[in-house]
Specification:
The chain has 11 helices and 19 strands. The protein is α/β, with parallel strands linked by helices and 408 residues long.
């Protein structure tokens, strides 16, 4: 089957520990995964870019792996930005309707009036979720064409520092890629892991990263709360490194293969050979690893619960919580989270795509899959911030840079 270049979508997830590229093919109103690429990200620490060249190399390697798998060339990507940089604000305005009906210009004027209240040259509007009222008719999603005398807009607006987006664009440009659009990673996670009923009833989304854990709350279909707390997979790795007296990378591999979040789920007599992953010890008790993991994760989830209570939406999350991030793969993690949070918790596996779904089934690909689903939608319903509009000139420039890379 011949794939047209215009039907190819590529997403870029720049995480703290790894860079992931997911390539999709728009087909029949949906999207199928046709390639993935992953590379460790030495240029990232605590969501900050500390080694630009290392990050650029990681983006290149992930892109090349994805291109080799799908047999297509990638020139532009849709990417996300961490929730820790984003501020949610709610603004409202009322505009008159002199023509007696809602026109496109009236809608644009209302949106402009709300965003003008947040006028700040150092920040960009990343997303806005609009709720409209025309006279006494409230809760309208698309008011265009309705008759009335006044139009009211209540907008939930996500703002992000322009510096963060500019850093992402610069890294992609150095890797010969064009950034087609940027969206809040929390939205991407919601798209790929949450059901519509959960977002409507109210749900807590907990994403365990390397150094930060994001806590987001959805209610009535909208993101109403978003925060990030200290703690994540790196701290757990450091606990294992201290026990084994070994390097962090070796400890991470042992953690990913043998760690368990609940000591009650481990055979007390089970010993595991870790000589393949570390030179410090040949055999270690798996129960000892669980005794290290369990209290550390309990403390993390207690902090998550405290954040939920501080949000003011604790009682609104009737659908429970959804857990994502690489740490959520640890055996017993979902059960321990449910006990600590005092509510039902499930594992958030990415969904909504076809094709090579086995390659993106783990929660580490949840952001990339969510970006892919959003980017495949019609332009009028996308929730991306269009930070650059690819033109023939920019695409030609990216193609020339790729050619120079291959020659060198």
């Amino acid at each position: 089957m011949t794939i047209r270049p215009g039907d190819i979508i590529a997403t870029l997830d720049i995480g703290e520990s790894a860079v992931r590229v997911v390539v999709g093919h728009k087909q029949g109103g949906g999207v199928e995964v046709i390639g993935v690429g992953t590379c460790r990200a030495p240029g990232r620490r605590a969501s900050e870019t500390v080694d630009m060249e290392g990050l650029v190399d990681a983006i290149r390697m992930a892109r090349e792996d994805a291109e080799t798998m799908c047999g297509c060339s990638i020139s532009e990507v849709w990417t996300g930005i961490s929730s820790r940089y984003v501020e949610l604000a709610e603004r409202s305005t009322i505009v008159p309707l002199p023509e007696g009906r809602v026109t496109k210009s009236a809608i644009a004027a209302a949106i402009h009036a709300c965003e003008r209240q947040l006028d700040d040259p150092t920040r960009m509007v990343l997303h806005r979720v609009c709720s409209w009222r025309v006279d006494d008719r409230a809760g309208i999603c698309d008011p265009e064409g309705l008759t009335g005398s006044e139009l009211e807009l209540v907008a939930r607006i996500a703002l992000t520092p322009a510096r963060g987006i500019n850093l992402i664009k610069r890294a992609c440009e150095k890797a010969s890629l064009i950034v087609a659009g940027v969206m809040l990673e929390t939205f991407a996670l919601g798209t790929s892991t949450l059901h519509h009923q959960e977002r409507t009833r109210g749900v807590v989304q907990v994403d365990i990263g390397e150094s930060k854990t994001s806590v987001s709350i959805w209610r009535q279909g909208a993101l109403v709360y978003n925060a990030a707390i200290d703690g994540g997979g790196r701290a757990l790795t450091e606990h294992v490194a201290a026990v084994l007296r070994t390097e962090r990378d070796e400890a991470r591999r042992v953690k990913e293969r043998f760690a368990c979040a609940l000591s009650e789920q481990v055979n007390p007599n089970e010993m595991v050979d870790v000589s393949t992953w570390t030179n410090a010890k040949d055999v270690v008790s798996r129960l000892n690893l669980a005794h290290v993991m369990e209290p550390a994760l309990e403390e993390l989830f207690r902090n998550v619960r405290r954040q939920i209570e501080l949000s003011g939406y604790s009682d609104a999350a009737a659908a429970g919580a959804v857990l994502t991030g690489g740490t959520s793969l640890m055996p017993g993690c979902v059960t321990l989270a449910g006990r600590a949070l005092g509510r039902p918790v499930r594992w958030g596996a990415p969904r909504g795509v076809a094709g090579m779904v086995d390659l993106v089934r783990e929660p580490t690909f949840a952001v990339g899959v969510g970006l892919l689903v959003e980017a495949s939608r019609p332009e009028r319903v996308r929730t991306f911030c269009q930070v650059s509009v690819p033109t023939n000139k920019t695409k030609w420039k990216a193609a020339m840079l790729r050619l120079i890379e291959r020659i060198l």
